[in-house]
Amino acid sequence: MGSSQATTENLTRAGLNLIQQALSIYDSDLRCVRVNRPFKEMFDLPENLCIPGAYFSDTIRFLAARGEYGEISDVEEFVISRVDQARTFEAHYMERTRANGHTISVEGSPLPEGGWVTVYTDITAIKDQEKLLRGRTDDLSDQLLDHTERLSQSNRELAATNATLEETKRQLTEMEARARVTTEMMPAHIAHVDEDGNYTYSNRRLSTVIPSRPTDILGMHISEALGKSAFAYIKPYYEKAQNGEVSVFEFTDDDSQRRVRVAFNPDQRGVYILSMDVTEEAQARAALSQTHKRELAVQLTSGLAHDFANLLTIILGMQSRLSRMNQTADAQELISATQSAAHRGGTLLNRIAEMSGPREMRPKPVDFCRFMSDLMTLATPTLPNQVTLTSHCEGMEQPVLLDPGSLQDSLLNLVLNAKDAIGTQAGEITISTKPVRDTWLEITVADTGCGFSDEALEHGLDPFFTTKGGEGSGLGLSMVYGLTKLVGGDLKLNNCTKGAVITLRLPLRFTSFEATPKLVLLVEDSDDIRATVREMLTDMGHRVIEATSAEEGSALAMLEGVNFVLSDITLIGGMTGVQMFDTLKQNGLKANACLMTSLPANNPIRKDAAARYSLIPKPFTATDLAAFMKMDHA
Asked: What is the pTM of this model?
């Protein structure tokens, strides 16, 4: 027990002992919690019956055996009776005359956690005064004196009852205050509406679930508090709840685009409501579901992909160095062409790998307006002269984290579909981008073509569905939908007055381009690849130390200041990069441990490594590596 706690205990004991009345507290198991000194002295109890843990039954047995309750034929039966009576924990008041002739009042009150507190008061003097009054007042009738005595006792009982009621009221007030604080702290809206749909209780969290709604809604009707759009979604479930049916459901609020989960639980006076914002959970569910759908059983990649990926990494690194040197225009054109070919080779590897497993997303910080400008440059040459392509980028000044490759593929596919919908007539294609409440990145692709048929609106996202006859594969929109769902987004098809509108919504994650300089340990057994990656790292502002084997890496990784370790999986010697990291982690490595590899995605060694450590696949560019190092690898 600490000194502060001991001081508090001593002060409490001293205060209780100063009370002239005797006091005892027993818990729900009828064991002593605390008694004061007057209690011990009033009943002349031994010390062992006055300490915490002493049984109530032992105290009653001791007093009964000593004659406290008069002559008792069966002490044990009397003890059992008193214990059973005590277990009811009901408030009571009584007066009794003890064996020593003293009269005491006994006032008991139950405790919220079980057990009770009892106060014993010696009222012998009061009783003597009543007897004296009876003896000296011959003019008062016996009936009046009896009435006075009963009135006096009733007053004492009433005082005890009032004290019990006040204590109960205080406890209820404290419980209500604790309950309200708890509900206000919960990340959910908790409320109750009466039979007419008016709020009788609500915490102040509705605006955190549906941002556009008010906070103070007591007395308001549920349709007014939620708004026309949100109430339209919940109305069928609310009507069922009014008829006594419990329900749990989700809907997307049109104004805020938040995904909301609602639970209705009816009672005799109305309906209890619990609602929560589950937007991020819904995004994660969608991404996980799409990942499972894209898992294929085929294995088409071979060991050649490993060497090819390494070669592409070297080529990209060398071409990056050449592009920073002073070259003629013709040389720069050749360098750009070589880089483009290497990128296409990497894309080919990725597409082959996708057939044996889920696509690996490569999110990186992207200047979105510049991304859209580059997309315009790529897409415009594919359109006929009579079709114009325009782009609007609003509210996207800050970089966003996304996979530019997959998004570029998706948007190019949609632009080509829009071109086909316009046909040989003059027309317009418009790509608009805007953030939606810092939750979604919304991209719309609108055209002035013929629009979607009813069948296309219903089945346009299904694989192999096409309206182009033998000219279409039916995989374009399905591919875009799959890539969008893979990152937790959504895609919708609609018609407008001028044509068709396709809306993509991706999770919005703002980020930055700046990177914190690190001391990086680079472990790679290929001299060419190590030199290429080292230059990428130093160009980013990082300091680099190198190792060619897991044994060397193990010795250098624990050096003071090393805060990032990047290692290939396959290394010379008897230890892999994964085994090196396992050993380092056991030895207390605090630096981020990340792997790189050119093994195909369906390789068991790579799968095992990716499940345990962060991994960047080869080939990668300096931009890919910079984005990878900015991610949280804890």
From this structure: 0.41
